[in-house]
Each structure stands twice: as structure tokens, then as C-alpha cells.
Amino acid sequence: MADAAGVATDAEGAPLTHFNDQGRARMVDVTSKDKTFRVARAAGKVRMNASTLELVREGRTRKGDVLAVAQVAGIMAAKRCWELVPMCHPLQLTGVDVHFSLEADGVAIETTCKCVGETGVEMEALTAASVAGLTIYDMCKAHQRDMVIDQVRLLEKDGGKSGHFVRAGEGPACAGTVGTDAAGEKAASLSPNPAASLPAGTVAAVCLSERKGERKHPVDAIELVVSQGIAGDAHAGNWHRQVSLLADESVDLMRAGGWPDLGPGDFAENVLTRGIAVHELPVGTMLAVGPALLVVTQIGKTCHNDCEIRRKTGMCVMPTKGIFCVVVRGGTVRAGDTVRVVGM
Description:
Helix content: 10-25%
Number of helices: 7
Radius of gyration: 24 Å
Order of helices and strands: EHHHEEHEEEEEEEEEHEEEHHEEE
Number of strands: 18
Largest sheet: 7 strands, mixed, barrel
Strand content: 25-35%
Structural class: alpha+beta
CATH architecture of the largest domain: 2-Layer Sandwich
Strand order of the largest sheet: 8-13-12-16-15-14-18
Number of domains: 2
């Protein structure tokens, strides 16, 4: 359909965003959209005979390690999705993960893709799951020709104007991940919830400063705002260092070195944690802090020559032990709240 001006429309007369003024397909213009954190999970399955599955489990297929090759293939496919699906945008992915679970009737696949950008990563996650499945088939076809690749689907996506989607009735597609045991042999994790073993701690204090150049001071609570940071903090803004975190254990090192009075905010951190080594979390980690959700964007920073704590003590732990994040889900955070990793 088209309106009086010749613009392609749907049955209700709304413009079709994927068509140009000639009624031909186009890649949607996302130039004016804000960059936000995006994440998507997809899944699929390769059904096979028990004998073929056993070869995969034991690494005895004619082509070698099936899952190692399929994992690399899935990651590569996610990065090249835009070359395979015509109207997809090239994205700067910040994370791609491919997990496998060996089940009674085949190999289940779950993929996760992340980015900070103007459009979502559902197609990248689905492409990764599809190509991982195709690779498993290719690696095993000499043993079985009638394998079936099915159940390729989007499990979950978040970020952007359309909000959070979770497929009805879906839990994690894979009960565990394939890794190695103490003897170096492949073993399927028996943990039904891999996230249960991820690092966690608590908020020791929250701090802010109303003006740049001033020491941060402890407050009762901070309000985290999506894509901005902390309401009222001088460093809030649409950039990659919206919230800073530092482990109190790192401050302990300096307290033990002769500065016992060091307290919250002295290193310009917004959130002082306890029980979690935040500096060991890789860039791209999703971190739930109270009701808010953060994504790690930077580990450490260059210490300013005029840093007050460096002038006072001769050293500063923030350049090596502090981390910086962007806010992807807002909320009020206060001392005593839980800090936990929800994705890496």
C-alpha cells in the first residue's frame, strides 16, 4: 500500500520504516538514535542419534573437536551477521558467547550477544545459534546424515525503545556449559543455574560530588538514571564512565600501609563494594547493583597529577583497581544492597 504521496504504508496507513520513498527496501536510518546497552540471547538444537552424540562427547568424530569448532563458528557468524542478512547494520559487538549442553537427544545451543549501539543484537544472536548448529552438522555428517537443526529462536532481548522481551515459558536453554574437568576431559556442567556461581558482594557506601574537582562524599542513597549515570553527580552524562566502583578491600591495602582513616569517596568512587573483586570483572560484565543494572566499560584509568589522594599518600588504587560502568537499568542504590554479576 501507499499514501497519497506515494510513501509505502501498512494496512493502518502507518509508514513502513524499511521502505524508501520508491517503495523499495532500505536499511533503516538509525543515525539519530541514542547509543544504549543491548543484549540478546538465542537458542537452537541439533538433534542426533545417541551414538553420534557419544562421539561428540568423547571428541572422537572424524573431523575432531566438534564443539570447539562450532563455538568459534558461532562467534565469527555473529560478527559477520550484517554481511549475511541484507538489512542488518554493522555493529561493534562488545561480547559474544556460545554455550552448549549435551542432552539425551542432541546438542542444545545458547548464544548471547552484547553491544552499546543504536540498534539491537537479536539477529546476531540468532545467526550465531544457526551457524553453530550448521557447524555441528558439518562436523558430524560423516557419521549421521539425518540430523535435524531446529528450535532456533530468540529467548530474550533488552535495550532500546522496545524494552525487555523474554519468550514465554523459556528458562535458560542450556542447563550447563561444556568445559573441562580436572583431568582435562570434556565435561558437561551439572549446575542448573550457572549464574549462581558468579561473583557477588554488597554495597559498602554510595558517594557523589555536585561539582567536578571536589572530593566525593557519602550519601544515604544515589539514583541511577539510564544512559546518564547518577542524578546530581557532576560526572553524570551520556558517556562511557557514568558510574565508578571500587572494592573496599582495595582501600584496605592502603589503610594497612599507614592511612587507616581512608573512607568512602576518598578515591572518587561512586560505589564502594565489599566481598567482590570488581577490578577482576572484564569489560562487558553485567552487574546488578541493588535494583539497577550496570555494564562494565573500563577497568582503571589514568590518575590525574593533581589527584588529592595521590598528593596526600603518594599513591592511588583507583587507576588499577577501580572500574567504570554505564547504566542500562535505573534505580535507587544504598549501602547494604547486593552487588552481583548477572552476565559475563
